[in-house]
Amino acid sequence: MAKVIPQISLFLFITFLSNSAMYGQIDQLCRTANPFCSDAAQELTFPNTTGDDFLGLGQIGCLNTSQNASWYFIRIEESGRLEFDIQQWMDIDGDSRLDRGEQQLDVDFIAWGPFTTSFINCDDLATGCDLNGDTDTRPEECVNNADDPDFYIQDRDNTNIVDCSYAFTPVEGEETRFIETLTITDGQSGEYYIILVTNDSDESGVIQLQQTNLDEENAGTTDCSVLEPGVGPDIATCGEFPVTIEGRFPRVVGPPEIPAAIRFQWERAELGTTNFSPLGAVTDTPVLEVFSSGVYQLIGYSDTMATIEVGRDDLQVLDVSAIEITVDSNVAEESFAGSYTVTAQISASFNNVPDVQVLGFNDFEYRLDRDLGNGFIEYRAFQSSPVFSDVHPGDYRITARYRDCPASERESSIFMILGYPKYFTPNGDSFHDTWNIINPELSSQIPLIYIFDRYGKLLKQLRPDGAGWDGTYNGKNMPSSEYWFRVEFNEPTDPNMRRRVFAGSFSLIR
What we know:
By secondary structure, the chain is mainly β. It contains 2 helices and 31 strands.
């Protein structure tokens, strides 16, 4: 997988406000969002919120009330469409599964996005919709997605609200089973979405977002790396700067108990080294815009004076458009098959790093081009494997690059696959009785083929489109042994028509 830009997850912290206090404090609420993801391997649940004696944030978007609000964020890993079922229930046995007999709770939600980081200015979250596009937003103009499923999909709200619903969909035969549906039509890798989920019943339980379209074509995915503390995986960027990185060090329940980080220090070192130097002052927002390749380390402190360290982690950022790639090829030949296996071999360096693959940057892809007489054209499209099977004789070159980064593309030198059998058996049974190259189409380029014995004695001259060698010399059968051949021709792809020589060996078996 290509490297991705990791971001911060935050520990859940619920604040209750009356409607009158909402607009001044929503930023404090949004920044307490809890990381969420959903994939085929795990369906996570989080505790819901209870005990809000007020109306939460009051009316926001399509929600008339936002009591017991819980805040979450998700990060897109693979681009595409994402559809989620949102459920809330009383998890009596604590197994994080909705079991028969467990009471499901009504659940409403509103979602915003996309954002480049989870640490957004939450005062920028739209609290209403704008039907006429005059930038005057009002909650009354927002629509419940159950009443008009296309309202948010077609962005008729004219805001950064992605979806909103206060209805529930009963499952057939289970009238008390409530499900809301959240849709992100075209999530892009690295984007963030903020989700608010309510609990109007004020009953303790758990909340789950379950992606329902994972097995469908063009489905996107969420990035579960946001659940891990630290700064996440390395980043490969194709010359696109700045990139935003984040990190987190939440409270660890002991023993020993480790408090959460509330102050942060960024440091940087050159790739391949650990000579870190501080970047700016200590901050309370662990977000950094990165403008160059390097190793970036985040240190977390649990006190306001930044004296008690509670965690550190680092990641590598590499501009893969600037790496130097050298491409070579290896051809494996199969006797009488007429086809071959070509394997690309690369080395990739960056500044003082002789091999970026040693650092973990190994997401390369390869394309095979062929010359059909009018210049090189694509023969096999870019693929992650360096191995091309069932390749027929001809002139080729390989193009290698870091995944999805055209600026890093480099080509190999031109190489010829000259097809020839590794052995032949001139015993008169009509199977492999003669030997010749398998490229009769090269007869215009290769006028003659010269065959020698192991001592260098010339035994035969052949034409590529002729009958081939029958294993005789002056009418006498030559013994079973290793024989050599050589072809000379002018390189048609060389503007100077320089002479090329190809030589190889084969066995005569009687």
